[in-house]
């Protein structure tokens, strides 16, 4: 028997779509369908208005400065509805450019500050004199273990919340604090692209549990066979981030 329908909104996929962020939607959808849920994916393009009361999970991907400035304006227009849904527990997965827009402002390399949604106590500043933060990244999260992926951002982010995790390899929020991403309410903010969820199934399930809870459904998810995903993670880490390999082994032992 099919279980109840969950609705996932992909906000502005026509503007925020760097590094195959769409793959994250495919993972969320399939991992729910494999557990017997019906899933509705709503693509909200820049000419449409989001209806936050309909969604159980919202994804915001990454984008260039130009696209981010357009999206910031769109988001500010619906900020009160978005903010109240998030305060009520609406889960949000926000990646790189989308993550930066959750804060007070995102500063462009010209110095101009693009106002964000103000959903979280966070600012992102430009460092035109310093290199972009680019490369493979691994993060240790108490909630989901090792998160692996790729980052590419000029902005340096500081916030007053819990980070998603601790940088094991790479740069993270600002390249110096050792912090990566943000956790607050049911918000998952991160600089990890790659796409994020195909490489990190434990993180995908953690986000889905928030969505199920928000939809007043049981939060238990039957385990799936993630052998291929785990092998890909191990291969990726041993090829590109040898220093992280012991951490991945620790994680495997803990599970
Ligand atoms: N990868 C991205 O989403 C880029 C975000 C932003 N434009 C920056 O460079 O900081």
Automatic annotation (TrEMBL):
Entry EC number(s): 6.3.5.13, 3.5.1.2
Catalytic activity: L-glutamine + H2O = L-glutamate + NH4(+); beta-D-GlcNAc-(1->4)-Mur2Ac(oyl-L-Ala-gamma-D-Glu-L-Lys-D-Ala-D-Ala)-di-trans,octa-cis-undecaprenyl diphosphate + L-glutamine + ATP + H2O = beta-D-GlcNAc-(1->4)-Mur2Ac(oyl-L-Ala-D-isoglutaminyl-L-Lys-D-Ala-D-Ala)-di-trans,octa-cis-undecaprenyl diphosphate + L-glutamate + ADP + phosphate + H(+)
Superkingdom of the source species: Bacteria
Pathway: Cell wall biogenesis; peptidoglycan biosynthesis
Gene3D superfamilies associated with the record: 3.40.50.880
SUPFAM superfamilies cross-referenced by the UniProt entry: Class I glutamine amidotransferase-like (SSF52317)
Annotated keywords: Cell shape, Cell wall biogenesis/degradation, Glutamine amidotransferase, Hydrolase, Ligase, Peptidoglycan synthesis
Function: The lipid II isoglutaminyl synthase complex catalyzes the formation of alpha-D-isoglutamine in the cell wall lipid II stem peptide. The GatD subunit catalyzes the hydrolysis of glutamine to glutamate and ammonia. The resulting ammonia molecule is channeled to the active site of MurT.
Record family assignment: Belongs to the CobB/CobQ family. GatD subfamily.
Protein name: Lipid II isoglutaminyl synthase (glutamine-hydrolyzing) subunit GatD
Organism: Alicyclobacillus sendaiensis PA2
Taxonomic lineage from the root: Bacteria, Bacillati, Bacillota, Bacilli, Bacillales
